[in-house]
Amino acid sequence: MKRRVGVGLVAWIYVFSILLFLYLPLVPPILFSLAPVAGGNAPTVHWYGELWRNPVLVTSIKTSLLTGILTALLTPPLGLLAAMGVRELRAPRAVLLLLLMPLFIPGVSMGLGNAFLFRLLNIPPSLWTILIAHVLWALPFAFLIILTAMTTFDPVYLEAAYVHGAGRLRAFLDVELALIAPGITGAATFSFILSLNETVRTGLVQGPLNTVQTYIWSTYLQVGLSPTIYALMSLLILLTVALVLVIRPMMARRAIRVTL
Amino acid sequence: MDEVAARLSRREFLRAAAYATAGASLLRLGPLVSWAGAAAAKKGTLSFADIGVGDPGGDWSKFTNATGWGVNLVAIGNAPSQILNVLIAGGGKGVYDVINIVGGMQKPLVENDLIIPIATSRLPNWGKDAYISEFLSSGKPGFEFIGYKGKIYGVPTVLQGDSFAYLPEKTGQLDSYAALFDPKWKGFVALEDNFTTAGQKTALYLKTNKLATIKDPANMTPGEIRTVIDFLIEKKKEGQFRVIWTSFEQAVDLLTRREVYVMDCWEPMVFAARKKGVSAVYARPKEGYLLWAMAAYIVKNPQRPADREKGAYDLLNFMLDGWYGAKITLLRGYMTNPQAVAYAKANAGDFSAAEAAEVARIHDNVRSKFRLGGTWQNRWPTYVEQYESEWARFKAAPSK
Fold this sequence. Notes:
The structure holds 2 protein chains of 2 kinds. Chain A has 12 helices and no strands. By secondary structure, chain A is mainly alpha-helical. In chain A, helix 4 packs across helix 7 (127-151) and helix 9 runs antiparallel to helix 12. Classes of the chains: A mainly alpha, B alpha/beta. Chains A and B meet through helix 4, helix 6, helix 7, helix 9 and helix 10 of A and helix 1, strand 2, helix 4, helix 5 and helix 12 of B.
């Protein structure tokens, strides 16, 4: 018994160390964002208020949020269609690999590819070009998440729906979609996060707009970061962590309810 | 498929129609994009691509109030190839009215048909900028930062001379680029990852101290470039360089953590380190400075209406004005235009006495660098590909 407690303790220390390793880099921006104002010594949240007074930053935040929301809305349906196609066609692994390939293509290459394509098609850079680049970036992730959710779905439920007179669309909407909904919500959440945090591809197609990330990156390279930028980085970190910590368990609970 | 359609209920149809309507509404969100920097501008918003240095803290109200034009600032990178990509591949030619970058880029910008010549008669502040006639006029080396083949393409927005920083508590007083290569500081030196700064300063050092035959550090022959890179590789193999830095923030961190004692860098990094309590000094090397200027260019767009082009000229004129110059000097530590000093002193409502004194101090400091001279940075040398491949060779070389 003592030996099992000892092993458990070691396992916990190991897990805690990994967590520390993973999350320690997120701490400095949060600490720097609490820097005292000139003449003071005490930590302050002054810079969190300050960032709303910089119109360039505010515009960047709006652009990032709007792009993130649209990416989260557009990507899961495309991922769902791709996953259904792969399942229906019993596509060979090569097709699966092709769908996931953009994950492994360097951001600069993908961004430049997008930019050249938009130019060939005479599409001027705008929110929509950023959106297309973000959807293309998030799509393989969304596809993978939805495909994983679909593999846990038992086709027997569809047979049961057909037996009870449902057509393919109704059976899909009422039975399959309800059961894989957590996967779709997860794909939407990840699409939003990926969009919010994308930099390299965005920088090449952003045209007249800045996202938060392209603004931070440019500042980091040329003029240095300020407590206001650290405050913004902290908000992004907190938003991302909140999305993962709050929304995913909510969806998991919903999945359990639907299954029951 | 027919079976599916037949089984669609009226409720499903209505729901699908609702989703389609919602989708269509989303697609109409395009006009929302025009919020970008629009503020209360009556005439519209000028699109201003900038590397971060030209942003006066987001406050363009003085310009907007005077001209009716708002400014939408877009932060872009400063690497030459990146700028060309953003303008050519990234569609920037049709989007940006003005780009404000480190100058000297006229050759690729003009040859790719990306910028237009500046009619200086349309800039009332042009003639008031004595720095232009003193340092950047035709026939002087600084002209290469704003002009090309006799025509003016760029409006100088900031001027500066670069050298290197050091920590006197570790090194004592230093006055030569030799410190970057001195074995005494082996392992405590950092260089910038840029062949037109670190490479050119090295060339200036080798030439001035007669350690290599280099005719012009600002435009070396392939053989001269190879000599400079061979020298740097030799030093790298000896373990001279701790790191090759790539960003403002990284360079400041190296100084504030006292990880390096001698560093090839920009002067504002020294100001940033001092604010964090580190007594760093920016050297006044006997070999002189690496001189440079930022330039604002009007992006070529034949579709741009005449009133919008006038707005672009108004913006350039504003950037040569006293308020903008003083603001940028205070924020970034660079010399801007002569009106900045007088404006800061005369407008206590905008600038305190201490701020006005700081603007004057920075201008005096940078002006003295230009008078000392050195070499002008060359952002697009004749053998640019050779520079790039040789710099890649330096970076790939092993360190001790």
